[in-house]
Amino acid sequence: MKTKTLSQIREVGLLAVLRAPSADTAVKISEALVAGGVTGIEITFTTPNALQAVKTLSEKYGDQIVLGVGTITQPEQAADSLAAGARFLVSPHTETKLARAMVQTGLPCMMGALTPSEVMMAYQLGADVVKLFPGSLGGPGYLKSLHGPFPDIPLMPTGGVSLENLEQWFAVGAYAVGVGSALFPKEWVAAERFDDIRDQAKQYRAEIERIRQAH
Question: How many angstroms separate the CA atoms of 81 and 114, rounded?
Fold first, then answer.
């Protein structure tokens, strides 16, 4: 199951990182994203009642989407996320007790890191993919530099990823990318412009397909 989910994440190439004002809004954003072809969804714990949104989406879409939970900062949140229907877990940082709880779920784990020491620590503690966060600090060039000493550690940048630089991230070996407000701007969410979010998702999906065909 773990291997299958990791393959699916690599295949979809993009995880939409949702920090929504409510669980209901998170579901609506997710529906718009899926309609636009973005099927990798990460509901963050900064969303009120985040796990309710996860349960709703899991029941509605099942294996049609790759659904996970992000911004995990407390060990007990890992098991709670598994129970709600999450298929992968993401933390913004790397910490021993948290990492142990995440790994114990048996789900694919992505732990946040920035420096070379943090990247290696996350990997040694069981991260299947290291979340390079915030990706905006170093950009694609920094990810390329990290792949020098760590060619076998899968890296996923989150923060600083946009439609304009998608190709640059994949060109330097990103396993996948995490995209938040660039995919669904806060003002669109506030105005419930879900059709615009769907259309934006289509653009991201099309760009990923174009990049793959070009390379």
Answer: 25
pLDDT tens-digit readout, 132-180: 999 999 999 999 999 999 999 999 999 999 999 999 999 999 999 999 9
Q: How far is CA 135 from CA 34, 114, 132, 160, in A?
A: 24, 8, 6, 5
CB 58 within 8 A of CB 85: yes
Tell me the one-letter amino acid at 102: M
Cis omega (within 30 of 0) on the bond before 185?
no
Q: Which residues pair with 178 in a beta bridge?
A: 15, 158
Catalytic residue list:
42, 131
Nearest-10 crossing angle of helices 23-35, 194-214: 50
Q: List, for residues 59-78, the tens digit of each pLDDT value.
A: 999 999 999 999 999 999 99
Query: Is the pTM here over 0.85, yes or no?
Result: yes
SS3 40: strand
CA-to-CA distance for 201 and 80, rounded, in angstroms? 29
Residue 163: CA atoms inside 13 Å, Cβ hemisphere, count? 14
